[in-house]
Every structure is written in C-alpha cells, then in structure tokens.
Amino acid sequence: NIVIFGETGVGKSSLINLIAGEDIAPISPDALPCTTEEHAYEVEIRGQRYTLHDTVGLGGGSYGSIPTDVAPAKKLKYFLTKMSQEDGLHLLVYCVRGSRATRAVRHSYETFAAAISGMKIPVVLAVTCVDDLSEAGDWWRRNGKTVESIGIRFDSHACVCTLPG
Questions:
Q1: Distance (Å, rounded) from C-alpha 59 to C-alpha 100?
Q2: CA 54, 131, 145 angle in degrees (round to 5)?
Q3: Contact 32, 65 (CB under 8 A)
Q4: Are 66 and 96 in contact (CB under 8 A)?
Q5: Residue numbers of the chain with a pLDDT score lower than 70
Q6: Partners of 4 in the beta sheet?
Q7: Residue 92 carries which DSSP code?
Q8: Using CA atoms, how far apart are residues 67 and 125, in angstroms rounded to an integer?
Q9: Strand order across the 48-54 sheet
Q10: Disulfide engineering: 155 pairs with which of 34, 97, 122, 144, CB 3.0-4.6 Å?
C-alpha cells in the first residue's frame, strides 16, 4: 500500500499515471480539484503488484465537490491510521509542487507526521511540476537545503515531470 498525498493541485493523480505507465487516475487542469475521495489503483511494476492510493488534496477548501463536513487533513489522518492498523502502510509519498516547496507546505507535513508518529513507514518527497527534464536533475541540488531548513525530513526524494510524452 502506497499512499500519495499533498496539497490540492500538486499532481498526485498525474504521478499515479506516471508510475502506472498509463492513464488510470483522472486528472484535470481546472481550478476545481477532480479527486474528491480516496481511490485505490492496482498496478503491476516489473511483475510486482502494488496498490497506489490517490487522496483528496490538502487545502482543497469548500469549493466544488469536496465535502466540507470533514477537513481533508483530518480525513488523511484517519485514513493513514486506519490503513496502518488494517492493511498496512508500506510507503508514503508526499507531493509538493516544485515552485511551492516553501514554509507553506510545512503545515501539511506536520499533519501527516502527527498521523504516523510512532509508525515506521518510509516517507519520500516527490517534487512535481518540474516540467523541464533538464531542470528536474538540478532541482534538489538547488533547493534541497531550503526544504530541509524549514524542518521537513524525508527518507528520500524524487523530482519528476508528470507531463505526458
């Protein structure tokens, strides 16, 4: 079980499509989010089966079709706790837009860090929307210390271009 999470509009569904090698998760360039509830996608990579969980974006607000009765951060915390107790969590992927990896993402980081406190689950940072492949290789070299300086820690990281082609 791999859970993909992050702010609204950072490309979580696009990352799932990239990992799967095909368009299995709906994506949208529109202002309103298209993922309104958690969805599990079964994928096979090099003969190994994985379940990728696409989650509602944190900070989705009260616009559009995302229910506002339960805040997305609370839903994520509940989902992570439930997954760890029932099916097991094997990897968390925190998606951050390359241009937004600032102190503004720290609140979301603290939300999931509190939810998994005491669990031994690896967490990786996926820096998305680095849409120039030549740029992707240099992004962490230029920005990694800034991310670390705001108190965000991960087991590993990847800078990815999720545009098709």
A1: 13
A2: 85
A3: yes
A4: no
A5: 59-70, 72-73, 100-104, 131-137, 164-165
A6: 54, 93
A7: E
A8: 27
A9: 39-45, 48-54, 2-6, 91-97, 123-128, 156-159
A10: 122
pLDDT in the model for residue 63: 46
The encoded tokens of residue 57 equal: 């974006």
106-129: pLDDT as tens digits: 777 777 777 777 778 898 999 887
* Separation between Cα atoms, residue 127 and residue 100, nearest integer Å: 9
Model pLDDT, residue 91: 92
Contact residues for 96 (Cβ-Cβ < 8 A; gap 6+):
6, 7, 10, 105, 125, 126, 127, 128
Q: Which two tokens stand for residue 38?
A: 């958690």
Q: How far apart are CA 21 and CA 157, in angstroms?
A: 20
Task: Map tokens 């299995």 to a residue.
Answer: 24
Whether this prediction's pTM lies above 0.85 is answered by no
Residue 78 structure tokens = 């509940």
Please state whether 161 falls in left (phi above 0), alpha (psi between -120 and 50) or beta. beta
Both tokens of 37, joined, read 């509830």
